[in-house]
Specification:
The structure is a single chain. The chain has 427 residues and is of the alpha/beta class. 42% of the residues lie in helices and 13% in strands. The chain is built from 17 helices and 13 strands. The protein has helices at 4-8, 48-64, 83-92, 103-111, 129-134, 157-162, 171-183, 198-211, 215-224, 229-245, 251-254, 264-268, 324-334, 337-347, 365-372, 389-400, 405-426, and strands spanning 21-23, 30-36, 66-73, 98-101, 136-137, 140-141, 149-156, 190-191, 274-278, 295-298, 309-311, 314-317, 377-378. Helix 8 crosses helix 10. The radius of gyration is 21 Å and the shape is globular.
């Protein structure tokens, strides 16, 4: 499934051929093979996220006299293999040295021992604790992101003002908000795609776990089977079903929509007042960076108020790479505070380094304030034995396809039981 990395580069150009792997070869310097969801951007590229990443890669190339060769895959449509599926195959086959990974693939391949431990890198010493926690598998730090990815609700403030609708904080207020939009002729208030509706679920499911002061104990109880994931997830799925049944979300269409490319046009054309997206989309001109209206980015509705949803990608190295030392050197460069400062300033994002801070664009101020206060939930936490981001996304798709909430909860129970059995055998 696609996750945060597809998010970062959702607006990048597609490959001309279906399911094509593209390799960019540039010169004869020592080559480090990178598998990522985008090609190297051209000098006049407009996608900010690509440009920010390329800047840090170029720093490594210049300082280490290496060339980072980009291998990339982009699915032509929703029926093809996803980037994550291809990444999993390539890692298991040892085809690359360096990877940009979504949380589900990072956790899975980390558990399989295929990713190098990055704990001893100098750049790891500067990481925020939440970054380490989210990317540590079996005691090993197997991924380091270039940004802390925060999801929120992108809203057209002008449409809210036009119809006299207050910004919602709680689930009930959000339902009322959508109802008022429909009463004013907005047929489908929420623009959705097949990747990101789990953000609504996570905000409902884990608001208390991550903000109640008892997260470590509750995660331990989930891992031991004392608590059930389904007990947390149920409220979020029930709520999402309400949004679908009321017609606030078009489930059938969402199942075929890619992130931003599907629902984005209606949002930018001011036909849809609400979409969900990641922080960087507010900066990228190819996403939502330059709307013709007053856009605000807020947290998802929860009983604790607006709730940002945080997910972690990872830059990872293959544990069995024949060029592991050189690959780790490249990681040291592109994940150094100097490079992360360049990345954060270019992309106006929250840095994984506690030493790097930049000012966000005005539209992100509401979301930024919440994150800085420590109010958020994690949608990816490698400390949870049952992987969150990918599994929740797939089960949400089943809900969109007509599966009942009860059946969806049975899926979470099955995953938890399988994990407990696997853990028991390993012990």
């Amino acid at each position: 499934m696609a996750g945060v990395l597809a998010v970062f580069f959702a607006a990048c150009g597609k490959n001309d051929k279906k399911g094509q792997i593209i390799t960019n070869e540039e010169d004869n310097r020592k080559a480090i093979e990178l598998f990522a969801p985008m090609e190297r951007s051209k000098p006049d590229a407009k996608n900010v996220a690509r440009t920010a990443f390329d800047k840090t890669v170029m720093m490594a190339e210049e300082n280490l006299d290496v060339i980072v060769e980009y291998n990339t895959y982009t699915a032509k449509d929703y029926q093809e293999k996803t980037f994550d599926e291809v990444a999993l195959d390539r890692i298991r086959s040892g085809m690359d040295d360096l990877y940009l990974l979504n949380p589900d693939v990072l956790q899975k391949t980390g558990e399989e021992g295929l990713l190098a431990d990055l704990s001893d890198l100098e750049c790891a010493k500067n990481l925020r604790e939440v970054v380490k926690a989210a990317n540590t598998v079996d005691g090993k730090l197997v991924g380091i992101p270039q940004e802390v990815v925060v999801y929120g609700l992108f809203i057209n403030q002008d449409m809210f003002d036009q119809y006299g609708i207050e910004i919602p904080n709680t689930p009930e207020e959000f339902l009322d908000c959508c109802k008022k939009f429909q009463e004013n002729g907005v047929q489908t208030p929420i623009g959705a795609n097949r990747w990101w509706l789990e953000t609504f679920v996570f905000a409902q499911a884990y608001a208390d776990l991550y903000n109640g002061g008892n997260a470590a104990k509750e995660v331990e109880e989930l891992n031991s089977g004392k608590r059930k994931y389904s007990d947390y997830m149920r409220a979020g799925f029930v709520y999402l079903k309400k949004l679908i049944d009321a017609g606030y979300i078009d489930a059938k269409t969402a199942l075929t929509y890619e992130a931003i490319e599907g629902e984005g046009a209606d949002f930018m054309a001011q036909k849809t007042p609400i979409v969900m997206a990641y922080w960087g989309a507010a900066n990228a001109e190819t996403a939502y960076g330059k709307p013709d209206f007053n856009m605000q980015v807020i947290g998802f509705p929860s009983e604790r108020g607006q709730m940002p949803v945080v997910s972690m990608t990872g830059m990872s190295a293959h544990a069995d790479s024949k060029k592991l030392d050189d690959t780790l050197d490249v990681l040291e460069e592109i994940l150094s505070d100097k490079a992360l400062q360049v990345y954060a300033e270019t992309n106006k994002v929250i840095s994984p380094s506690k030493n790097v801070e930049v000012e966000c664009v005005p539209a992100l101020k509401p979301l930024s304030d919440l994150v800085n206060e420590g109010t958020y939930v994690l949608a990816s936490n490698a400390g949870m034995k049952v992987e969150q981001w990918g599994n929740a996304c797939l089960i949400v798709r089943k809900l969109l396809g007509g599966m009942s909430v009860k059946e969806c909860m049975a899926e979470f129970d099955r995953l938890q039981e399988e994990t407990l059995k696997k853990d028991g055998k390993n012990k």
